[in-house]
Amino acid sequence: MGNDAQQSEDYQRIESAIRFIEANFRSQPSLEQIARSVHLSKFHFDRLFKRWAGISPIQFLQFMTLDYAKQRLAQSRNLLDTAWDAGLSGPSRLHDLFVTFEAVTPGEFKKQAAGLHITYGFHPTPFGDCLLAATERGICHLSFIAGEDRATALDPLLQAWPRATFAERPKHTTTIVERLFEPPEKKDAKPFHLYVRGTNFQISVWKALVSIPAGWLVSYQDVASHIGRPKAFRAVANAVAINPVAYLIPCHRVITGSGKFHQYRWGSARKKALIGWEAARASTDQS
Fold first, then answer.
1. Which of these is catalytic: 251, 254, 275, 282?
2. Gap between the Cα atoms of 132 and 113, Å rounded
3. CB distance 97 to 248 below 8 Å
């Protein structure tokens, strides 16, 4: 089994474990009980987490606590305020994935993607299967498959670009997906370029999200303040919720000001898994 496929299979058990914890948080289940919920021994559960996240499940679960979230909020807010004030919010300076950004023009928006050719493919990732779509001008869609069939997962892409032509070409899109989750030291200098459509407000929110580095957490209020609309945090939350490019526009790094992880378009368990996985990599890099 290829590494991506193995990680995707591992993720299914990781997500099930997180769901079990969510459903039983009041009773604070033991590690052995959590392992048993995904039909593994405590020993094999430990091996699963170390293979998938690089750390033990006990270490990983610490990254999903309210105390950790509040601590990271405070730390990230201070660091981002300094960076944003100094004009360092460009993705090439802050975002370890080196994401560049292009928005559909008003004229192109009116054409509803007429004449645009989009290739797409379904692929395994460390967070389950994904759908990635790209044009000659950049990645226009990335979503995780949250239990639905592929035809259902494809609908939002087709609706977002109604007059485009589509071709399923997984051999083309796999070269992009293979680079997405590589460790920072293995990444090349070639940026991921995004091509997205949205209102001016949505675009401003998504650009702000791109400047949040892996392992950091900010609140909806922080993002609203950064884009100069401090009272528009609910509108920010709506823009975050319809983000068309998962992970590369890291909406999973935005949580409530109280430290709660809140909802996620592709499931709360996946959001916690993403946050914990990135925190694990950040802690490993610092050690």
1. 251
2. 17
3. yes
| Residues whose CB falls within 8 Å of the CB of residue 23, separated by 6 or more in sequence, listed in order | none
- 257 and 198 together in one domain: yes
Mean pLDDT of the region 182-187: 63
In three-state form (DSSP H/G/I as H, E/B as E, the rest C), the secondary structure along 243-266 is CCECCCCCHHHEECCCCCCCCCCC
Question: Do 219 and 261 sit in the same domain of this protein?
Answer: yes
Whether residue 45 is found in the same domain as residue 157: no
83-97 pLDDT tens trace: 555 444 443 344 445
Q: What is the pLDDT of residues 140-156, one digit of tens each?
A: 999 999 888 899 999 99
Neighbours of 86 (CB within 10 A): 9
Count other Cβ atoms within 10 Å, centred on residue 166. Answer: 15
Mean pLDDT for 248-272 is 92
Active site residue 130: no
How far, in Å, CA of 254 to CA of 200, rounded?
A: 20
In terms of residue numbers, what domain contains 48? 3-62
Residue 286 predicted with pLDDT over 50: yes
Query: In this predicted structure, what is the pLDDT of residue 211?
Result: 83
Phi, psi of 232, deg, nearest 5: -100, 35
